[in-house]
DNA sequence: AAAAAAGTAGGCATTTATGCCTATATTTGA
DNA sequence: TCAAATATAGGCATAAATGCCTACTTTTTT
């Protein structure tokens, strides 16, 4: 198991989220709308610009209908 | 797979974190010191009072030497 | 190539997490 | 039971995420 520094972690997480979002057939806008959050936030999370909350990630996994653990599996 | 609302999720997450922290033989203070964050934050996370960041959780898994996915496995 | 769709960027105000500190409560061990 | 260790609580200042908005860039589709 490898541990990343925060910046690398956020970028890797974002890439993985993007993968699952597309896999489930969502645009950033659809995901943001279903979540009730800003589309710009999705963009920032996927690019690793911001360090979002675990609650937010729980909501995202709910909307995408995936296991939250998958979002941390990379 | 079951999806929790945010409040229930944060409480469940906190309980799980506490379980793994004790399992790895850390006090809240030791964990906070190793992380370089406030002990009061650990307490708040474990009680589900705050909605901490994914970067913080990555750091915690690193210090506890566990798989980050375990912290989301409940 | 042109138009449409999707994603990126940045500013500003607001909300929330965090740091720092002190005091209180609970749990553990002698 | 008493003392020590561990955890909880709250206030205040600061930093960071978020909401809301507009403009620009990149990608996709026709």
Automatic annotation (TrEMBL), chains A, B:
Name the domain of life this protein comes from: Bacteria
> Which UniProt keywords are present, listed alphabetically?
DNA-binding
InterPro entries listed in its UniProt record: Cro/C1-type_HTH, Lambda_DNA-bd_dom_sf
Give one Pfam family: HTH_3
What is an example of a GO molecular function annotated in this UniProt entry? Answer: DNA binding
Q: TM segments?
A: none
SUPFAM superfamilies linked? lambda repressor-like DNA-binding domains
What SMART domains does the entry give?
HTH_XRE (SM00530)
| Gene3D superfamilies noted in UniProt | lambda repressor-like DNA-binding domains (1.10.260.40)
In what residue span(s) does the HTH cro/C1-type domain sit?
17-71
The cross-references to PANTHER family, in alphabetical order and at most eight, read: DNA-BIDING PHAGE PROTEIN (PTHR46558:SF4), TRACRIPTIONAL REGULATORY PROTEIN-RELATED-RELATED (PTHR46558)
What name does UniProt use for this protein?
DNA-binding transcriptional regulator, XRE-family HTH domain
The species this protein belongs to is Lutibacter agarilyticus
């Amino acid at each position: 198991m490898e541990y990343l520094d925060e910046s690398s972690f956020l970028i890797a997480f974002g890439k993985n989220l993007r993968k699952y979002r597309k896999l489930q057939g969502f645009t950033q806008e659809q995901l943001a709308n279903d979540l009730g959050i800003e589309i710009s936030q999705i963009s920032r999370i996927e690019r690793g610009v911001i360090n979002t909350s675990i609650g937010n990630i729980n909501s995202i996994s709910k909307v995408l209908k995936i296991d939250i653990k998958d979002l941390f599996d990379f």
